[in-house]
Design goal:
Keywords: Chaperone, GTP-binding, Nickel insertion, Nucleotide-binding. The chain is α/β, with parallel strands linked by helices and 277 residues long. Helices cover 32% and strands 19% of the residues.
Length: 277
Amino acid sequence: MGIITSTSTRTGTSIHITPMSISRLTNMSILTSISSLTNINILTSIIIHIRPERTSKGPIHTRKQLRRDFVERGFTVGIGGPVGTGKTALMLALCRTFRDKYSIAAVTNDIFTQEDGEFLVRNGALPAERIRAVETGGCPHAAIREDISINLGPLEDLTAKFHADILLCESGGDNLAANFSRELADYIIYIIDVAGGDKIPRKGGPGITQADLLVINKTDLAEAVGADLGVMRRDALKMRDDGPFVFAQVKHNVGVKEVADHVLAAWAAATHGTVKQ
């Protein structure tokens, strides 16, 4: 049976709602429960944490594909992860890997700048007209999950203009709780790095547990930061129910081909094997 629990924090009262409790409770009863836990004057301080069910764990072939029109919007790969883990570097590497064989376009998300898009243009990832930079404002996670229209527009426009086969969409840097909506991304790559320590995979979060592919980047720094790659491997497999992950050094092109192969396999599965060889 689902439950609602509360925890006091510096920023207010944290309300934890399990998936089962959401399905059994009406909006009014949720609001009533919240109101009973805190004074109405501090309702603006409440943080609601919804613990998602792991709906997309494991290899992509075990997850039911959403049926949609890939002519309207090309096969969309969402690349997410915390700040500084190598999302833009992976975008660049995948553009370079795919661009000679497939029609590729890219959308980047930044909070208040267009820096990542400018980086891709400056490094010749793709022609500038195939790259769009989106400024999300202070809630980058909303642009890839709750209100995806800010990304859908550019992605559909790029598909119409260039008949894009594959669209790469980079999220703004966010925490481990952020992940793409399945209405936006057909395939989700979540990238972390060893600089945060070998504890990161076991911390979980939707990005780590639900992404189609987990990339553990900057493995060349493991010794310097005291991270045990064996521990990261064990915990990644445990948290992802043996779902796929790749050790990588994206900047040095290590692991990039393996990531690209996963993307192409997913594209083939989604389009029933119609991928150009």
